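Document type: protein sequence-to-structure record

Subject area: structural biology

Format: plain text, a pair of labelled lines:
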Amino acid sequence: MRAPRSRIIIAILLSLSIAFPIRAGVIEKVKEKIDFYSELAMFGNVLDMVQRAYVEKVSIKNLIYGAISGMLSKLDSYSMFFTPEEFAEFKGDTEGKFGGIGVEIGIRDGFLTVISPIEGTPAWKAGLKAGDRIVEIDGEITQGITLLEAVNKLRGEPGSKVKLKVLREGESDLIEIEVTREIIQIEEIKYADIITHKGEPKIAYLRITEFNEDLPESLDEKLSELRKKGMEGLILDLRNNPGGLLTTAVEVAGRFLGKDKLVVYTKGRLEDRKDYKTDYDGAVCNVPMVVLINDGTASASEILAGALQYYKRALVVGEKSFGKGVVQQLFPLPDGSAVKITTERYYLPNGKCIDKEGITPDVKVEYKFVLSPDEFLDLLRGQMSSEEVFEKIKKGEKIKEKEKTQKEIEEEGIKHDAQIQQSISLLKAVIAFEKNK
């Protein structure tokens, strides 16, 4: 029986590599090519077999699309294939408005996992939390689901509902959550104001929800307003921020670090190393800082938190971040389809890769909703006291309390947020220490 031609060629190449060791690298590449074409031939054989023998006639394009999709799903949870229709829809989503529930998702440990619900969106209002594992969508189990399939299932007409079952850490039973879809409009800065009382150091609180291309300009405006109000310390809230543009994170870092500071670098096979440094000539915000993170802090927001922590520009407070430290690149294909492939990993200035590791806070503080004893009694009572009711009647006032404004709701949340209150205490101590120096 004759040996296959490919084996004969490999044997010859091996003997040549022994005789000419200098050329071993070249020989290895040739062997890889032979293996590649051998495996490709096997794929072609299976494709031909399916076309000839499968019980029904199958579209060759669908077979190729399916093969590409399956191949990319074996790489990681972020690499994926887009059909021409899906790619057109994806490009529309990147403009900042899309129909859905407002949640960043990924595949982790085989589960469809919530990276972060986007603040103010239906997912946020319905109670989805970072780390929730979505095990059912509208009655269908998500086992083996791809990220793209999940995104398509969560999308829908505004006003329509989607029913989810989630597995949450610390809960023994599945939680059922119904979410009403809306057109999602993302507001990158949700709150920026002084939050301490008169007579105390003026500590500002600023929450960023996403790193889009408009953020640096909006941030400059907010920081300018806070300076005019006499800001002495700053709490930068990156909790439940799923990330966004890497370049925006670097631009934002420049507002706090100044010019020519390495924020992050990427490494991959297409490019060995690429450094991202700050390039900002404006007024640097140099007041003492705290950065708040949690398990919904991911990607670009982790890069910013990690850089500020590395340069000791800010204390990082809260809980460990999500740990998404990879870069995807889009490669459009001739027929209008596209592939998105992980091409690089992020590395902080100290060489640490945050992927699956996340950022560990300097001061760990678990999230708690804190009430004073009087507030707790009011909450249990759920209504005004009899004295308050009669006082209002005497004054001829309406009994029903007025609706709270969005700003009042925000301020109420800040007041009872243990992580924010701990951050205020830390900044007060730092400011007092600096003044005593």
